[in-house]
Input
Amino acid sequence: MQSNRLINRPQLVKSIRPRRTDAQAQVDLRKRWNGHWHGRIDLITNRVARTFLSERPRPTLGCTYPKPSHCGKVFEPPGGPNLLSRINGTALMLGLALGNAVLAFRLPPIPQPASYHQFADQRTWLGVPNFGDVASNLAFAVVGLAGLWFLLKPGKLTNAFVDPRERRPYLVTFFALLLTAFGSAYYHLGPSNARLVWDRLPMTIVFGALIAIVIIEHVSLEAGLKLLPFLVAIAAGSVLQWYRDELHGHGDLRAYAAVQLYSALVLLIAPLLKSRYSRGYDFLIVFGWYALAKIFETADRFIFTHTHIVSGHTLKHLAAASTGYWMLRMLRLREPSPPEFIAH
Output
């Protein structure tokens, strides 16, 4: 009788593990593996959004690989199944709008500070008063013109839009950025409430258009296109309402602040919603530039006092213009999402 022998675990695993004898099959497997990680490298900038919104898929012993998208590339929607559906996204946006309106109504009136027009850097150069705050508006003009050129030039941004009508809110956005360059420069040449209207008016148009963009790309194309003129009108109306009240001696910035707050919140929640395109997380970076601009604006005098070169308000203009640059960058790099990844 043959004696039983003890078999250690490595020998057992080795004995039962299936062996691939086909050399060509091993080559094919290696190609699939390399293609998988090349797709990962293409999506490396999506790492932050994927980390917070979903669990990163890992290769298993069973050799499970992502399927190629309609473009022949590995496609992975940022967030995957954890993204909000269209209905939930709509409910969230409506809830934020209602909460924002209630908050603005409950707060006491917010007057325009008398010291608002006293900026830190009031130096004159080349005969231009407040040169730093005036010249820095050139950034808005450059970004606005670049955006309009790419949007209107045939053959540019070929993968940026599935429906040509989706260009409309972006055209409004970049045209408003161009107007901001003139309006803000005009204001800083002689700061006053009368001129401040022309500084704030184009920027609120940008806010309204941004909200429409998120609705179009994350909720409903038709709804976003129909709401675009109303959102722009409401945003611009907040500035006109402030100036009308200012002329009567009781200026109130609550509506203007509510428009800014809601547009910022919409940018924050955009990556949580299923999108018609890739790179939805770029809206977070746009929000980051906007937040940085507000920080620079608040630290205007502090920055100028410590640098004696540039003021916080000048840096605010550069950071705010960077929001437009990043949106243009997003348009140039993004691709349409496959139909199976779009919310229904």
Q: What stands out?
A: Residues 1-80 form one domain. Confidence is low (pLDDT under 50) at residues 33-45, 48-81. The chain has 13 helices and no strands.
